[in-house]
Amino acid sequence: MNLLGSVVVFLIGNYFQGLKVEFSLSSTMHTMKNKYELPLLYTSSVPIIMLAALLHNSFIGLLLVNSLLPASAGVIGMTAVVGTRLVALSGLLRLISPPSSLTDIVLSPLHTLFYVAFMGSTCAFFSTSWTKFSKQSPR
Q1: What's the confidence (pLDDT) of residue 137?
Q2: What is the Cα–Cα distance from 53 to 36, expressed in whole angstroms?
Q3: Which residues contact 127 (CB under 8 A, 6 or more apart)?
Q4: pLDDT digits (tens, 9 = 90+) for 75-111
Q5: Which helix (H) or strand (E) covers residue 105, if one does?
Q6: How large is the C-alpha radius of gyration of the chain?
Q7: Three-class SS of 41-103
Q8: Rounded Cα–Cα distance for residues 102 and 106 (Å)
Q9: Angle, CA of 74, 79 and 85, to the nearest 5°
Q10: What is the pTM for the complete model shown?
Q11: Which residue among 32, 66, 89, 99 has its CA within the 20 to 30 Å range from the CA of 107?
Q12: How far apart are CA 47 and CA 37, in angstroms?
């Protein structure tokens, strides 16, 4: 399921990365008309990779703090091993972990909405930062 989701997001991202918006520029002084293409997305996939690395490192760091300070389990969260996967059950660990299946999306819509809003806003922040730092901004 996670592999299929990754492939779908990859394909959608590549599609939108290739889209360009075409503007017609014309002058009243000259009879010249030009077409200028701007990319729809100014960022690459680097901000999303940065966010994924940050989330995984945060997850591992929170697990480490949770194992060293068992009293913090209420805030940080509880985990359980399901099959071969480590699954977050509550707390901050649960909030930053993606929904694991379609039934998880249906059964916990607030978690799904929080995760989507968190991912969208954080990706937007990293994207705007990336365009400023890499000098790709349109200004």
Answers
A1: 61
A2: 36
A3: 42, 43, 47
A4: 777 766 677 777 777 777 788 788 878 888 899 899 8
A5: helix 102-107
A6: 21
A7: CCCCCHHHHHHHHHHHHHHHHHHHHHHHCHHHHHHHCCEEEECCEEEECCHHHHHHCCCCCHH
A8: 6
A9: 165
A10: 0.61
A11: 66
A12: 23
Among residues 121, 120, 117, 79, the alpha carbon closest in space to that of 100 is found at 79
* Termini Cα distance of the chain: 41
**Do residues 108 and 101 lie in contact, with contact meaning Cβ atoms separated by under 8 Å?**
no
Residues in the chain, total: 139
Of 84, 120, 108, 97, give the one whose Cα is nearest residue 9.
120
28 in helix, strand or coil? coil
Specify whether the CB–CB gap between 41 and 126 falls below 8 A: no
What does the block give as tokens for 25? 């520029």
